[in-house]
Amino acid sequence: MQSIGKSLMFFILFIYAAVGNGQDSLQKEGKASFYHDSFQGLETSSGDLYDQGDFTAAHRTLPFNTFVHVTNKQNNKSIVVRINDRGPYKRSRIIDLTRSAAQKIGMVPFGVVPVKIQVLDLLDRYPLTDSMMHENESWDCFGNKKSPEGITVYIWKTEYWKHAFYMATDMVIDYQIDSILVKTVGDIRHRFYYIVASGLKNKAEAVALIEKLKRDGYRNVRILH
Q1: 144 and 173 share a domain?
Q2: Three-class SS of residue 180?
Q3: Is residue 10 part of a domain?
Q4: Which of 144, 190, 191, 217 is deepest in the core (most CB within 10 A)?
């Protein structure tokens, strides 16, 4: 388990430096749009069902399950999405986001905004697998195994451990909360990765965080315990 900690420590130290100066595999600027609500529940090109409350996106060429850091150039708000569809079909646009992803970066009122997209592949360079993590374990972004403390808020879940750690890292930086954890739920055959915020001092602090996260597109946020 020590190797996980070292690898993820390097990850959190360098990933946003890479995002900032284009050292990852692909960086591009252009316009982003987001799906119409009528697409809810329809099958995407990858076979996933479109979920407007998830953090996924359509891109014309990137492989499915590529993770992309998207930054709204107008306000510098960002989100990490997983590519699971093809599009957008208007050539002037480079990526289509779910409604929740669009809400997170503040683009819903405008429809189309200028963005910078950056492929995240740093975790692909380390020998990490989800089999190294076990049911009901929780990890911080530095690869330290930690137990949730105090009031804990459930934020979001995914089947993809890389998406969970990329997202958790983005949230630590974005919200300035150092108690964001990735919790494994279920055995290796049917597993989800929960992102939670732990160590909240009281219910009022938890409720304030929940309200902020819901405004940012995290639809199912709730007090976990």
Answers
A1: yes
A2: strand
A3: no
A4: 217
- Determine the Cα–Cα distance for residues 186 and 136; give it in Å rounded to an integer: 7
Is the separation of the CB atoms in 21 and 103 below 8 Å? no
Count other Cβ atoms within 10 Å, centred on residue 155. Answer: 23
* Domain count of the fold of the chain: 2
Q: Nearest CA to 184 among 166, 160, 152? A: 160
Domain that holds residue 83: 25-120
Q: Is residue 12 part of a domain?
A: no
- Encode pLDDT of 30-39 as tens digits: 999 999 999 9
Whether the CB-CB separation of 53 and 220 falls below 8 Å is answered with yes
The per-residue pLDDT for range 53-69, each reduced to its tens digit, is 999 999 999 999 999 99
Comparing CA positions, the residue from 14, 224, 13 lying closest to residue 138 is 224
Instruction: Identify whether the C-beta of residue 81 lies closer than 8 Å to the C-beta of residue 97.
Output: yes
